[in-house]
Amino acid sequence: MKKSELRELYRMMxxxxxxxxxxxxxxxxxxxxxxxxxxxxxxxxxxxxxxxxAFKIPKVNVxxxxxxxxxxxx
Length: 74
Hints:
The protein is of the alpha+beta class. The chain has one domain (20-73): Arc Repressor Mutant, subunit A (Orthogonal Bundle), CATH 1.10.10. Helices cover 57% and strands 14% of the residues. The protein has 4 helices and 3 strands; from the N terminus they run H-E-H-H-E-E-H. A 3-stranded antiparallel beta sheet has the order 1-3-2. Strand 2 (49-51) and strand 3 (54-58) form a beta hairpin. Helix 2 (23-30) packs across helix 3 (34-42). The chain starts with a helix and ends with a helix. The relative contact order is 0.19.
């Protein structure tokens, strides 16, 4: 995916969410369970950073995950 495409998607997708989201926000964005949200991060499908006992996930990583999933299912 080109940088310009990613930048445009970033503006359009999830405008009500902050640049860095937590697990609860990730669940809401993807419509998945808490267990699946943790699995996606722990298995490397979505890149996140563990700070203390909480994960912080850049919104751009969530968008990349969604776009890669859509490309693989076409």
